[in-house]
Design a protein that fits this description.
This protein has one helix and no strands. The chain has one helix spanning about 15-30. The radius of gyration is 29 Å and the shape is rod-shaped.
Length: about 55
């Protein structure tokens, strides 16, 4: 009789980790917000006009 070789299944979790890492890298490079918002916004709260004449 002929022998039937049975191969063990390879684990799937390394592929899942690799896909998540690549997706995170793509998000970081392409989809992140490149606009830097300034936290030093000056707001006129005095109620007077600041237009110089």
């Amino acid at each position: 009789m002929a022998e039937i070789k049975i191969e063990k299944k390879r684990p799937v979790w390394p592929w899942i980790v690799a896909v998540l890492l690549i997706a995170g890298l793509v998000y970081y490079v392409f989809l992140r917000d490149d606009h830097v918002q300034s936290e030093t916004t000056i707001e006129n709260t005095s109620g007077t006009d600041t237009i110089a004449e």
